[in-house]
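Methods: holo model generation. Sequences were used as deposited, without trimming of termini or removal of tags, and paired with ligand SMILES retrieved from the corresponding compound records. Each pair was processed once, and we did not select among multiple samples. The sequence and S-adenosylmethionine SMILES for this entry were:
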Amino acid sequence: MFDISIYNENCISGARKHIKNSSVDLIITDPPYGIDANSFEKHYNRNGSNVNDGYVEIPAEEYVDFSQSWISEAERILRPGGSIYIVSGYTNLFHVLSALSRTSLRLVNHIVWKYNFGVYTTRKYVSSHYHILYLTKPGGKVTFNTYCRYGADEHDAQGGSLNYRDREDVWIINKEYKPNQKKNRNELPRELIVKMMQYSSNEGDLVCDMFLGGFSTAIVAIGLNRRITGFEISQKIYSMGIERLKDIKPGFLLDETRVPQPNTHIKRGKPWTEYEIRRVMERYSELRAEGRNKRQSIDTISMEFSRGYFSITNILKSYQKEKAQGGFLSEN
Ligand SMILES: C[S@@+](CC[C@H](N)C(=O)[O-])C[C@H]1O[C@@H](n2cnc3c(N)ncnc32)[C@H](O)[C@@H]1O
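and the model returned the structure below.
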């Protein structure tokens, strides 16, 4: 499978021309941050000579309109149930959030990506994170592959759930260190893109990056057997990206990704203790109070208690019945 439609165009007019309504399963994108090039190099502590030139920045005074325009195109091309991840610095984050608030897109998680090589400062805190906004488009089935990287029963030496940890909303992922190699400005690490793509898409899905830069999203999409479409406005950066794609083999990342252990639910079949039932009920109430829906709450409990989904559903049902009849598990 090798299906790419990548354009050397402005993503706003380009999307209108080339991409149909509701046709994209997943958007992963990293728009220009609206800060001037010199301060960017200084701020992000870069050796300018190793950074590809040709990068097109958006003047600060145009950032509001620019954000509104590309985000409304993103909303249009995303299928109902499709997901979008937007990487953003903090300078113009509020404009991105404000533009998003004028769409139907639903903010699901605000992820903090903590990276290495933060901005060295002496009289303030060191800046070493970006924001990643994860949203979905209402009206269709959302792809979220809960166990694509770690099974429900996989634990570290201290007994902590690896699946739970991988799905926390602070991601510690290092930027790639490429000494003396040419890089695009703000090139995202492959590991970061792989993670978003594994959770929110499947093989054969169509992924779009509105701002391709160093083509990192395109490379990962091809490597994971997804279809890719996207835009890069700069002729110079686009040509370098196309050059990078020449050596990329479809599916090359599939062998490198971790295979999760199947969920066996180690306690399956074992009788429930009264204490365990009570803890499940408490946890269920907590999760619902935090705003999780029934399905999400049961998934979480399933992982935390190493029990199957239906086993928990049955316990909840019998608890509700007992409670209605004033039985042994009612509050006292
Ligand atoms: C932050 S970079 C993307 C970096 C990319 N994620 C990577 O990993 O290399 C943003 C890119 O958007 C491009 N760009 C700026 N305005 C654009 C527009 N209107 N349409 C398409 N690309 C644009 C810039 O030239 C730059 O290469």
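Residues 274-323 form one domain.
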